Amino acid sequence: MPLQGNCWFLCCRQGFSLLGRDYGEKEEEESFELRNKEDLTPNGRWLLREVRGSWIKHRRYWFVLSQDSLDYYTGPEKGARRLGTLVLTSLCSVIWPDKQTFKETYWSITVYGRKHCYRLYTKHFNEAVHWACAIQKIIDTKSPVETPTQLLIRDIEENKFNPEVVEHIYQHNPILKYTQGPLYAPLLPFPYGSLEHTGYGSVREEAVKLFNCLQQLESALEPVPIIQGVLQTCLDLRSLRDEVYCQLVKQTSYTPSPYTAAHLRYWQLLTCMSCSFLPGPNVLKYLRFHLKIQSQSPESEMDNYASFISEALEKTKCRECVPSWEEIQMLMNRQEMLCTIHYPGPGSCQLYINSHTTANEVVRRMQEKLGLGDSRNTFALYEQNALWEQPVPGSALIADILTLTTKESESKSQWKLCFKLYCLMDADSISVDSIEYLFLFEQQCHEIVVRGQLPACEEDLQALAALRLQSLMGDFSTHAPCPPLDELFPGHMLETRVLLSLSAPQAVPPCQVAAQGCPATQRFPTGLLAGTLWSHTAAAAHKQKVEHDKRLRSRLKEESAAVMSSILERWRDLAGYSRRDSMAAYLTIARQWSGFGCTLYEVDFYIQSSTGNFSQKLWLGVAATSVSLYKQGESEALESFPYGQICSYGVSDSNTFRITAGDRDLIFETTKLTEIMQLMNAYFSAIHHQRGKGEDPDITITENTEVGFCHLASTPTPTLLELPSHPV
To answer: Where does the MyTH4 domain start and stop, copy by copy (predicted)?
Structure first.
């Protein structure tokens, strides 16, 4: 039966009996009903309201929920005095009862309104839930609230082709124009009491604070910190981005002194915003109209900024981090930044980049600059320092990478962006006179040697080190400054050899032999003496470790000197070798390995057997035609799987990679999940592209960058990448 007149909330428990049992409440058969406000009944519930005065205390009131408000009275009787009202609109919000806010015997709900905030308490969890549910249902029935600014933006959009009407709207609505006074409420609607991020107040409070920050720009000696602060807030509180755009449009409209440096600060912040975040569709239209009006001022700074912002909005993607100090300064002057890109060997070049430049764009420009546009191999950007290296995703913004590096890198001086080979599809067609040959020598040969990934005997490794010196320094000279050994020879090989020699069994002194034969009770008596003996033993162990480390360093120094001496002798014998001859000889030795050209990843390979499951540390080699498994240090592959035999591959959980070849499932645990998957995708894509099958929908490889999965466009399950069963 439809309800007539004002209604009020009595009780609401049906459907929540499970929650009641979970919290030890007695299960009651009650229902939710709205009743006529005049039909007073003793079946209502009292709630306690938090009252703030000189101290916080709880008072009991009779609460009534109607279709428009939450009211509270002195009691349930007819004629009871109403003490307060919270008008319910679409912007009101409810904080539901939570274990973390449970206070002794009371459950709380909080209702936020425009002028009031009610914190209510009840002894029953179910009752708290049902009150919250009932209030939220009323809120959800309300029409969305529109602010005056929203209504005026719509009027401007509807009349944008009628300049007189638009001018009239601006002249009669100061909310759209520049002001020196404070802002007491946001320009756009936000839920009351809404919290989005730890460390911030409500969104409405933060919106008002942001306007105050904008006004401080006019008098600030250094505007960059304020701009960074505003951008950081917009990064953390996504819902405030449209608000800041509206505030900036307001402060750049009908300004009394539009050409002063103080006023241009607003345009500079608007420039930084446009290169960091895109506004929503309605605000974007409003912003574009505003820029069009401002650009009608010929040859003015406002016109220059408006044109720059309009172009930026066509390219902007959401940033991962706030622009750096350097980038903000460049944007304030509408300039580009210089970025140094290194490539194998001592080479590097500088490119101009902006806030929208991606890694793919830099790769393309580097290929053009170095004459590699026709190469059959593919290239990528890598982040690199002395300890690690990782490829940069093609869609990544270079400005974000530079900013993150500035924030996080402790050894920024060693960090660099490198342009390198990514997929080696064809090594045989590379001309010895091309720069690509240098890439092959430096990256596919020398780097894997010094990393210890080339399975070769020590004699070959020393020969390679000598050839490296000849290619770098020319003929042997006692005055030539030699690079350190770890740049020529795999250091882990020396460490392994020395550790094995030091761990060999040594003669035990007679006193220790006698001690080992004594019963434990005799060697460690109880009482105070036991503690003394234990301290003495710990000190002796520490002393032994110090001596062991000292011997290790000494032996490493001796071994390094011996190996370096042998390398120098071999270098002396290479007199007359040209740089090209040295590189060719180096490559000849490296090519003897069957896995030449592959990228190696250290993985834990899981093996299932009748006695149980166990793992083995192996190398997974990803190459142009296959993936292979190698035992570390051995030249022959344990197994190799051509791509034509691979049915699927992908990430099966947070640190596990799975490859299905025929009826076999190969499971690996590795920290390089994304890199392995992206490299395999790149090889498959390159193969399909070279064979002219890149548009075949049955073999199209797609990547879901949000969750890190790759799959076919026609495959419903995104966890694994399904590939054609026939050879590719």
So the answer is: 178-332
Residue 61 lies inside a defined structural domain of this protein? yes
* DSSP 8-state code for residue 725: S
Q: Are strands 107-112 and 389-391 parallel, antiparallel or unpaired?
A: unpaired
Q: For the chain, how far is it from start to end, CA to CA, in angstroms?
A: 68
CB contact set of 425 (below 8 Å; sequence gap of 6+): 376, 377, 378, 624, 683, 686, 690
Q: Which two tokens stand for residue 97?
A: 């009862």
CA torsion through residues 470, 471, 474, 477, sign: negative
Please report the pLDDT score of residue 406 as a whole number.
Answer: 73
Burial classification of residue 470, based on how many CB atoms lie within 10 Å of its CB (0-12 exposed, 13-18 middle, 19 or more buried)? buried
602 DSSP β-pair partners: 619
Model pTM score: 0.78
Q: Is 647 exposed, middle or buried (0-12, 13-18, 19+ CB in 10 A)?
A: middle
The reply to whether 284 and 308 lie within a common domain is yes
130 and 171 together in one domain: no
- CATH number, position 364: 3.10.20.90
- Residue corresponding to tokens 């360093």: 553
3-state secondary structure 344-390: CCCCEEEEEECCCCEHHHHHHHHHHHCCCCCCCCEEEEEEECCCCEE
Instruction: Tell me: do 431 and 317 sit in the same domain.
Output: no
Residue with tokens 């944007």: 331
**Residue 109: count of CB within 10 angstroms of its CB:** 25
Per-residue model confidence as pLDDT tens digits over 321-337: 999 999 999 999 999 99
Alpha helices (runs of H) in 217-333, residue ranges in sequence order: 224-236, 241-251, 261-274, 281-294, 301-315, 325-332
Lookup: tokens for 599: 């990228």
CA distance 673 to 657: 6
| Amino acid at the residue 489 | F
CATH number at residue 299: 1.25.40.530
DSSP assignment, residue 620? Answer: E
pLDDT in tens, 612-668: 677 889 999 999 999 999 998 888 999 999 988 888 898 888 788 999 888 888 889
324 vs 306: CA distance, rounded Å: 22
Burial of 385 (0-12, 13-18, 19+ CB in 10 A): middle
Q: Which of 247, 118, 263, 111 is CA-nearest to residue 185?
A: 247
The count of structural domains within the chain is 4
Q: Provide φ and ψ at 384, rounded to 5°.
A: -150, 140
Q: Distance of alpha carbon 457 from its chain centroid, rounded?
A: 42
Both 355 and 317 in a single domain? Answer: no
Distance CA 627, CA 460 (A): 26
Between CA 705 and CA 674 the distance in angstroms is 10
Whether 515 and 540 have beta carbons less than 8 Å apart is answered as no
Give the integer Cα–Cα distance in Å for 398 and 528. Answer: 65
User: Is 555:502 a contact under the CB 8 Å cutoff?
Assistant: yes
Residues 233 and 361 reside in one and the same domain: no
